[in-house]
Fold each of these.
Amino acid sequence: MLKALCWKPARNVKLNLHGGRHISNRAEGLSPSPATGEDEGSEKNSRQVRAAARRRVCVPVLEHFDKFYSEQLRHRWPAVREILLHPQSWQYGVMLNRFAALEEVKEQLHIQGFSSLLPHCQGSLQCFVHRSPVRFPSQRHQAGQLKQYYLLNAASLLPVLALDVNKGDRVLDLCAAPGGKALAIFQCATPGGLHCNELDIHRHKWLMKTLESFIPQSLSDVVKVSNLDGRLFGKIEAGAYDKVLVDAPCSNDRSWLFLGQPQQGHLRLGERAKLPGLQKDLLRSALEAVVPGGLVVYSTCTLSHAENSDVIQDILSSCPNVELEDLDDLALSLAHHFTFDANTRFGLLVVPDHGRTWGPMFVSKLKKIR
Ligand SMILES: C[S@@+](CC[C@H](N)C(=O)[O-])C[C@H]1O[C@@H](n2cnc3c(N)ncnc32)[C@H](O)[C@@H]1O
């Protein structure tokens, strides 16, 4: 169930990247999904994928997906279903950390047959992928050392590429934990400021840890972390940003399939109908938080049209000062890596496919024209 969201005025904190005490206030929100389908540059990730492979499929969720996605995706659904049900087939991207020494890692990637996802360099963002579900080992945190890479579903980079952050941009990552996209933003360019916000207190701590492990202390002035309800930003920080990323809480299709007990599946499915309301509120808040001419990228990791195209359609029809931005060039530049659903409107939807298991990932880009 969606809990009532109660917010106490939180102290926004400057990120103390290496040592020192971090202060944050508590806030309540959606309980975090198990991280099975989430990006995470830690040991935990491989363990969770192995655990998911052993865990039983949650039957009520699978039945629900069969009903809705066979209608929505038609001939594509059997292949997507097969991939979602087999975590061993999932591929991982290796996003390099430009702030760490990388020669040895690059050599290892080359030896193991990884190749660059982005041959035409997007700033300094570098991500390596393999045709097979080869797992590059995850890195442990070592005090005083920055991690060299972050493992992720390569489709997670699409929202960041769509945001197109340039040096000096004031950027807000409204729903930021565990922090994969915030790191990707930093790989593209050094923004003038990056404000990472996360409502859930446990995930907020996880976000802090991720940032500490990848971003050098010399950039700590650029990063701010907060623990607020993202729906407040339109009011408290109206017009403060050039670009906002809304990587929204959604029904994470990969992890929901492995929720375990049927009761948990029923509970989550009951929440599902409430998600589009929350997603639209977050998106409206983001649109208020950008300057006129500013850009907002909305993304989810679900195949559900109700949480993707329908959300954008609703915003476009209710906000006359908002226009949809074209993502055709981005889709074209990555067409040999990702399978895009041809029937998705108002954005791009990456659907898992054989040999390119990336996704699900929906991305849409909006411009506030006045
Ligand atoms: C899809 S995840 C974000 C993943 C993250 N962008 C990344 O790349 O690592 C969505 C996040 O939104 C958070 N969330 C849920 N409701 C929220 C709200 N009202 N305001 C801010 N964050 C919220 C969830 O706790 C969750 O961590």
Amino acid sequence: MDGLIEISEKEFRTLADLIYRTVGIHLTDKKKMLVRGRLNKVIRRLGFSSFEEYFHALESDTSGRNISELIDRISTNHTYFFRENDHFDFFCETVVPWLNEIMAKKGNRDLRIWSAGCASGEEAYTLAMLLAETYGFDYFSAGAPILATDVSSTALNAALLGSYPFERLKDVPQLFLQKYFTKLGMDRYQVKDVLKKLILFKRFNFNNEHFPFRNAFHVIFCRNVMIYFDPPTKDRLIAKFQHFLEPDGFLFIGHSETLGRSHPSFRYIRPATYRKGAV
Ligand SMILES: C[S@@+](CC[C@H](N)C(=O)[O-])C[C@H]1O[C@@H](n2cnc3c(N)ncnc32)[C@H](O)[C@@H]1O
């Protein structure tokens, strides 16, 4: 006995189904204890004594607040600056020259970059620093900001706030730390407004039927998100990415992920890096 509210097999399945239908996150039976632990505090705070009562509240909640909190508790938002850094080296060495070619050909500065599943924003801020270093802040006054989306409102609020413990900034070069952050205390840094302005943070659920983008992207980062999805959900999302990428556009996924063989419309470039268009 650990004093936590019990979750029955049936209750766990009801919850897993609801989460799957809402955000596509696939919870296997192995996650039962994790889910029970993560939701106990929420259930108690709401004044319930069982998962069943909690479900009733979820069903009758028209504000969407409870379901939103549920998703926040279940999704894993772990991230940090310059995570899987070889992607960012490749971005500077190979993607940026390609972006330059496109801009030169089109005669505009319309670059479209999407950090899809951005969690608390570290990936998007990393890209913003690299783009600011490459193009300067001027570029952005003409070009589109980086789009960064997530389904978790809590994660997005943290992204908008832009205040991070040093632990998440360990891989940020010293020069960038000085240039783009204000030190708040021993262990905390604040992203400067000049950097914040380069990013548009929006709530967006990959499970939505409709993706509200007018134009396709040149680069999509969707890293460490699809690991939580089952194959049909993942395939549907990859098809959307394919649709919303420019020809030869880049798709970056997490290093522990793969597109598999069912997506011939992407060609493999290097680990966790693909381009739109068959070989
Ligand atoms: C582990 S974080 C990845 C953060 C960052 N991309 C990285 O690689 O460090 C996974 C994020 O995916 C988000 N996510 C999960 N399901 C989603 C969905 N259906 N729509 C949008 N975002 C989702 C979660 O909220 C979480 O913030």
